[in-house]
Design brief:
By secondary structure, the chain is an all-alpha fold. The protein has a single domain, classed as Growth Hormone, Chain: A, CATH 1.20.1250. Helix content is about 80%, strand content about 0%. The chain contains 19 helices and no strands. The two termini are about 30 Å apart.
Amino acid sequence: MQPKGFLKSGHTPSLFSAFLYFDVSFMVWVLLGPLAVVIANDFHLNAADKANLVALPTLGGSILRLVLGYLTDSIGPKKTGQIGMLLTMIPLSWGWLLADSMNQLYVIALLLGVAGASFAAALPLASRWYPPQYQGLAMGIAGAGNSGTIFTTLFANRIAQHFGGDWHVVFGFALLPVLITFVLFSLLAKDSPNQPEPRKWADYANVLKQKDAWFFCIFYSVTFGGFVGMSSYLTIFFNTQYGLSPVRAADFATLCVIAGSFFRPVGGWLADKVGGIRMLTGLYLVVAAMMAGISTLPGLGPTTVMLFIAMMSLGMGNGSVFQLVPQRFQQEIGIITGIVGAAGGLGGYFLPKILGNLKQSTGSFTPGFLALSGIAVCAFLLLLAVQGQWKRTWIGEGGKAKVGQVSSGISG
């Protein structure tokens, strides 16, 4: 890596703004994950109910990412990010001041998806400033904003406990960093001069006609979907399986989330060096092995270690996928970011459903983790099947960027 070359090749304030926007948005997006075990006491939720509650924000994020992706290409990522933060304040205010039923919480959960949709503005804001050889690092740094999950798992239940179990106040506290980030983002972020022409909805259809877009959707639904889904569900898992208190369960979830958050830029940087394909093939196998090991439901210590390694691998996988995406779809980065990000959100929606519903129907987490292991194996096999064609058409050996490369537009 050449640090000076990287720093001079882009716009550092915009890269920081993208990270900060993504960070606070992730914090909000997964807010119901740790809080679910507190809310469950008020509404007497079973395993499936809790899974539904924490899954809905990721579903909302998937839908709204397409909208924000379209806005990013139409009005630019800066304005789109500002709109996203303003809209994020609506469900937070509702949850703080008005929410008093599960029906309202389900609506709030869906609306929190606008925070998850930040992906479609934050990553293009960073990506459009940097050349192909630095895409992995730039996207990894911006994407490390998923570390916002740590603040939620570490503090949400503590705040609720401090106020006598009142989870409403947590929504109010979450408004503060959103407001601060909105001001900093407005002052520091700057759209790259290399903005594409405004896109039409037909352009989304044209991208979806290309098989490579669907492949990236599948790969990211496993890595990012696995990360955000586990981030949302781990507090419930530790609380249910090992009988930990809400705060203690969230602490163990935080430990695992840290691995996925801080290793995302490492994954992007390593993918720049050795190739995104090489990185992903190994990471999918590690995830499969860890999930299979967790399915045996060993003691708290071994389970935490395996979850740490699995989350680390998923985080690095996120960075690796987005080392590849801009190389293949450089001119359509706003559109493809929205599409692939939406697929990642769908993966995050189904993961808690898999674990929660199978737990409810079988009484054990074993079938759910075995299913997750099988999904990782399938992603590994699919990547093996498509990598040959990718190397023959648009990418370097192992998935390395070709310096000076421009997206070929070849249908894969």
